[in-house]
């Protein structure tokens, strides 16, 4: 049984970590990037492997921000850093501080990587580029105020077209803050609205010196400009991403100035030619107008004749108008007279007179008809009265007959209905008497 005091897991892990870090120190490891992940913390975790082995690696946020390119799956790199142990899992890993692509410099790889990305977005497409104005009225320059490139451009501009004013936006052209300053000054120039062309550039240098013009922030600012932009960075053999995003790439700053403005002598010569053409054209037009005027003048008659003819036409038109007015008035009078006659015929007074006469005639006819009808009625009444009188019982009584009635007033037509003691009213033509039956009547044979 061993008498050695056992380690705890944490103690052993710390001993191993100290041994690795103290003995290995900083190392450079070459391998292929795989299993790359980028969580929201900003750190990058990946595995560095070769044909037979692999090691975990971590690129913390601060070191990742300094990396000029993006790590990609399958990328062959050399990672500079130190070996450490991740104590919670007891596994060793490479803490990466700097990364270099194998076979190319880091900046050149970053250049190609960003170029491919922005080209895929269409930032370098030819159809996005704007043409330069042939005769600019104001030019802006974004560059270092102390560089030789600025003086070269100003000299060329003053020689070619001194009448065009130049606005300078000073900026750093290399260093950590150069990209932000260049982008800000470019955007400020573009927002002014009174510039026709903007030149952005600097003199020559190494890839590291020109790197600000390859950063994504500035490249996007160049592509977003509404004002045409000329990129003039370095020498003719130097290419930056700003060159691809700009509307025009100039091989040098001096060449950019030559492309920005026309040569004043050429402009004056062009103006002279245009003036000569304009004068010739004007003389031709004047001659044509003069000839046309002469022909027109010959065809024109004396204005007095024209006025007299027009005056005669006015007189004729006046007389014709008067005649028409007279005819219209006569026709109106005739229509008015006819309407008056019709109105008189339909006058309420005449109608009332006619109705009154008609009423009198009707009344006379009614009275005559009434008298005739009354006479006829009287005659008929007399006739009927005579006929009625001849049929009346009273007339029979006047011939010596009498009318017998019982006390109830009923006529006694037969004697057999009477009995002794019955009262009988006898009516004569001049009166009536009351009698009593004394004997029973004998029936007539």
Task: Give a short overview.
The chain has 445 residues and is α/β, with parallel strands linked by helices.
Task: Please characterize this protein's 3D structure.
The chain is elongated, with a radius of gyration of 71 Å. 49% of the residues lie in helices and 19% in strands. It is built from twelve helices and 13 strands. It has helices at 9-24, 61-66, 106-121, 148-160, 178-192, 216-224, 241-245, 253-260, 264-299, 303-345, 348-391, 393-398; strands spanning 26-37, 44-49, 54-59, 76-86, 91-101, 139-143, 166-170, 197-202, 229-233, 248-249, 403-405, 423-428, 431-436. Among the domains are: 10-103, Nucleic acid-binding proteins (OB fold (Dihydrolipoamide Acetyltransferase, E2P)), CATH 2.40.50; 112-262, 3-Layer(aba) Sandwich (Rossmann fold), CATH 3.40.50.261; 396-436, no CATH class. The strands form three sheets. Strands 1-2-3-5-4 form a five-stranded mixed beta barrel. The chain has 445 residues and is an alpha/beta fold. The N and C termini lie far apart (198 Å).
Strand content: 15-25%
Q: What is the global morphology?
A: elongated
Order of SSEs: HEEEHEEHEHEHEHEHEHHHHHEEE
Label the CATH architecture of the domain at 112-262.
3-Layer(aba) Sandwich
End-to-end separation in angstroms reads: 198 Å
Low-confidence stretches: none
List descriptors.
445 residues, alpha/beta, OB fold (Dihydrolipoamide Acetyltransferase, E2P), Rossmann fold, five-stranded mixed beta barrel, five-stranded parallel β-sheet, 49% helix
Secondary-structure blueprint:
Elements: H1 9-24, E1 26-37, E2 44-49, E3 54-59, H2 61-66, E4 76-86, E5 91-101, H3 106-121, E6 139-143, H4 148-160, E7 166-170, H5 178-192, E8 197-202, H6 216-224, E9 229-233, H7 241-245, E10 248-249, H8 253-260, H9 264-299, H10 303-345, H11 348-391, H12 393-398, E11 403-405, E12 423-428, E13 431-436
Helix pairs in contact: 4-8, 5-6
């Amino acid at each position: 049984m061993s008498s050695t005091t056992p380690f705890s897991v944490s103690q052993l892990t710390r001993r191993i970590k100290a041994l690795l870090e103290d003995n290995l120190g900083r190392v450079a490891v070459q391998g292929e990037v795989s299993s790359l992940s980028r969580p929201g913390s900003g750190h990058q975790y990946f595995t560095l492997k070769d044909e037979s082995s692999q090691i975990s690696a971590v690129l913390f946020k601060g070191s990742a921000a300094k990396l000029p390119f993006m790590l990609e799956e399958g990328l062959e790199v050399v990672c500079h850093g130190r070996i450490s142990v991740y104590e919670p899992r007891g596994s060793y890993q490479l803490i990466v501080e700097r990364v270099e692509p194998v076979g190319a410099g880091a900046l050149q790889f970053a250049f190609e990587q960003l170029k491919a990305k922005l080209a895929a977005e269409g930032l370098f497409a030819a159809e996005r580029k704007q043409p330069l104005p042939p005769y600019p009225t104001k030019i802006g320059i974004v560059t270092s105020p102390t560089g030789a490139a600025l003086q070269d451009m100003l000299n060329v501009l003053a020689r070619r077209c001194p009448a065009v004013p130049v606005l300078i936006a000073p900026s750093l052209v290399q260093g950590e803050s150069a990209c932000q300053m260049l982008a800000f000054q470019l955007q400020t120039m573009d927002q002014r609205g009174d510039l026709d062309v903007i030149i952005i550039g600097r003199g020559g240098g190494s890839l590291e010196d020109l790197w600000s013009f390859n950063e994504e922030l500035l490249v996007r600012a160049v592509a977003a400009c509404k004002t045409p932009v000329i990129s003039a960075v370095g020498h003719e053999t130097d290419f930056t991403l700003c060159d691809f995003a700009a509307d025009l790439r100039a091989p040098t700053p001096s060449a950019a100035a030559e492309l920005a403005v026309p040569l004043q002598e050429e402009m004056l010569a062009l103006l002279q030619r245009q003036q000569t053409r304009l004068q010739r054209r004007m003389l031709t037009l004047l001659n044509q107008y003069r000839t046309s005027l002469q022909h027109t003048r010959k065809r024109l008659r004396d204005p007095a004749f024209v006025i007299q003819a027009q005056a005669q036409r006015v007189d004729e038109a006046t007389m014709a108008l008067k005649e028409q007015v007279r005819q219209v008035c006569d026709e109106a009078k005739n229509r008015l007279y006819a309407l008056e006659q019709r109105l008189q015929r339909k006058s309420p007074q005449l109608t009332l007179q006619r109705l009154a006469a008609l009423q009198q005639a009707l009344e006379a006819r009614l009275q005559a008809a009434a008298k005739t009808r009354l006479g006829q009625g009287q005659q008929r009444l007399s006739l009927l009265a005579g006929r009625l009188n001849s049929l009346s019982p009273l007339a029979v009584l006047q011939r010596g007959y009498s009318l017998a009635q019982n006390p109830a007033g009923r006529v006694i037509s037969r004697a057999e209905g009477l009995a002794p003691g019955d009262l009988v009213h006898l009516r004569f033509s001049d009166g009536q008497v009351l009698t009593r039956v004394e004997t029973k009547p004998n029936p007539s044979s």
